[in-house]
Design brief:
This protein has 241 residues and is mainly alpha-helical. The chain contains 11 helices and no strands.
Length: 241
C-alpha cells in the first residue's frame, strides 16, 4: 500500500478574477509551506503562480478523503463544482468564473485524447514560437505520464520548463502568467499519480491525458477554471470503482 503524501496549505491570497492576460497578485507563502521548505515536492517557489497548484492539492485531498463519490460524468461534473466552492479560494467567485468548460468538452478530452492538443494550442493567445514550445512540452508530458515515468522525473521535467519560461525575456508577463499557471496545476495534479484515488482500489490514477488537456484549455479562461477542468477530467477519466 502506498503512503499518501499531502502537504496542507493555508489560504492563499491572489486574484483569479482577472483574465489570464492580465497581471495577478503574487501569492504569499503560507507558514506550512515555509516549515516544510519552500521547494518541497510538489511545490516550486520560483513560480510566482504556484498558489493555484497548492489550492488544487487541497481540493484534491478533500476528494480523496470523501467517503463516496459519484461515477457518472454528469454527476462528477456537479460534484466537483460543489467540492471547489467549499474552499476559501472560491468563495468570492461566481459559477461562470470556474466552470466554463462544459461537460461535453471534458468528454471529448477522454474520447479523443492527445489528438485534440494541436487545436487547443492553436487557439491560445500566444506567439507562434511560444505555442510551438508549449505544445512540445505538453505532448511530451502526456507521453511521460502514459509511460508511467516516476513522478520525480516528471517533477524535474516541469521545473526545467518553468525555469526556461522564467528566464525567457522574449515572453511577456501576461503570457508567462498563463504558462506558469498551467505548469503549476500540472505539477500538482500529476503528483496525484503517487497517490491512491480511494482506499481499497487496485490502481493509481493511470490516465491523466484528459486532465492535462483540461488544464491547458481551461486556464486560458482563468486559473480557477483551469483547476476545475483539470480535476473534473481526472476524476471522469479515473472514476472510483
Amino acid at each position: 500500500m502506498k503512503i499518501l503524501f499531502f502537504i496542507p496549505v493555508m489560504i492563499l491570497f491572489f486574484s483569479c478574477e482577472k483574465p489570464m492576460h492580465e497581471d495577478s497578485t503574487q501569492a504569499a507563502l503560507p507558514s506550512s509551506y515555509m516549515q516544510r521548505g519552500i521547494d518541497s515536492i510538489p511545490f516550486y517557489s520560483n513560480n510566482p503562480y504556484d498558489a493555484i497548484g497548492a489550492v488544487y492539492g487541497e481540493i484534491l485531498q478533500a476528494h480523496l478523503d470523501a467517503a463516496a463519490t459519484p461515477t457518472s460524468n454528469d454527476s462528477i461534473y456537479a460534484y466537483v463544482n460543489q467540492l471547489v466552492v467549499q474552499h476559501s479560494f472560491f468563495h468570492s467567485l461566481s459559477y461562470q468564473q470556474y466552470s466554463k468548460i462544459e461537460l461535453g468538452r471534458l468528454e471529448d478530452y477522454i474520447t479523443y485524447g492527445k489528438t485534440l492538443l494541436p487545436g487547443i494550442i492553436q487557439q491560445l493567445n500566444l506567439s507562434t514560437e511560444v505555442k510551438s514550445s508549449h505544445e512540445e512540452f505538453v505532448e511530451l508530458l502526456i507521453d511521460k505520464l502514459n509511460e508511467r515515468e516516476d513522478y520525480l522525473v516528471i517533477h524535474e521535467y516541469i521545473l526545467d520548463y518553468e525555469d526556461r519560461i522564467l528566464d525567457d525575456k522574449e515572453i511577456g508577463t501576461t503570457d508567462k502568467q498563463y504558462l506558469l499557471t498551467v505548469s503549476s496545476i500540472l505539477r500538482h495534479s500529476t503528483y496525484a499519480k503517487r497517490k491512491r484515488p480511494k482506499k481499497n482500489t487496485d490502481l493509481d490514477w493511470d490516465w491523466l491525458t484528459a486532465s492535462v488537456l483540461g488544464t491547458v484549455e481551461g486556464t486560458a479562461q482563468g486559473d480557477a477554471n483551469g483547476l476545475t477542468a483539470s480535476l473534473k477530467a481526472a476524476i471522469m477519466e479515473n472514476p472510483s470503482p
